Amino acid sequence: MNIIRPEICELQRLVEERYGKPLRTTTDFDEVSYFIHRVGGVEVSASTLKRLWGYVGDSHSPRRQTLDALARYLGYEHFDAFCAWLKTTSAYSSSFFSTKQLMTKDLQEGQRVEIGWAPNRYLLLVYRGKGLFEVMESKASKLRQGDRFEAQCFMERYPLYLSYVLRNQTRTSPFIAGRNGGLTLINPLK
Description:
Elements: H1 5-19, H2 26-40, H3 46-53, H4 64-73, H5 79-88, E1 101-103, E2 112-117, E3 121-129, E4 132-139, E5 148-150, E6 153-155, E7 160-162, E8 166-167, E9 170-171, E10 175-177, E11 183-188
Helix pairs in contact: 1-4, 2-3, 2-4, 4-5
């Protein structure tokens, strides 16, 4: 059976969405196992769900019956029907969109920019030129004063993805700001 991983990831995401929260505890897996049986009439053990979610180490591919049961929990006849829906739904297709944005090319070196995101994150940045920003002030963010990063564009209601943050001359792993709801404040200062 050749199953493409992104479909399984989306299946997991939608199962968590229906459950109402991420599956992170033994109780979560027990409850979802019960709900799957109640909705679809098929037993999927909590231990099978734990393996699929990576809660316990296992390198086995999920069985078709497990994927079918999860798809039925979401209202689809089977996993293939779920995959067919993924291919046709507009929720996953590419498109053009309109939003407030601030392009780095429109900034002057030394110009300050405020950005913020929920629940209460705030950064005051200074543009250092060539796409490089330095954090001047940080409130409730994991980014710190003195951190530097590269960005080409800030878009309202979309997350800010940074391939790295330069902290004390060391590159960190990638960072995302505004994962839920995106940036809510983008304000170039004069």
